[in-house]
């Protein structure tokens, strides 16, 4: 009877050790996944920043083109109103 109790205790101990190993493996896998997620989020943030910079440059370019169009219209209007004037 005593021997059966010792064997059963050893079996439970081994089972517990296996469970702890699986838990450690799972936690390691989770840590790796979280690290990959953090890297992905960092790359996403970098991409969004580059996109924002590109949009700002595009907006600046469009504003300059609009100003050029306004100046051209103004000059064209002046030519139409005063065709004899030398520019």
Explain the overall architecture.
By secondary structure, this protein is mainly α. Helices cover 92% and strands 0% of the residues. The longest helix is centred in the middle third of the chain and has 80 residues, at 2-81. The protein is rod-shaped and about 120 Å long. The model has no long low-confidence stretch (mean pLDDT 84).
In summary, what is this structure?
With 87 residues, the chain is mainly α. The protein contains 1 helix and no strands.
List the helices and strands and how they pair.
Elements: H1 2-81
Helix content: over 70%
Order of helices and strands: H
Multimeric state of these chains? single chain
First CA to last CA: what distance? Answer: 117 Å
Mean pLDDT: 84
- Rounded to an integer, what's the Rg over CA atoms? 37 Å
**Beta-strand percentage?**
under 5%
Structural class: mainly alpha
Total strand segments: 0
Q: Flag low-confidence runs.
A: none
Annotation field: number of helices: 1
Overall spatial form = rod-shaped
Give a short account of the largest sheet: none
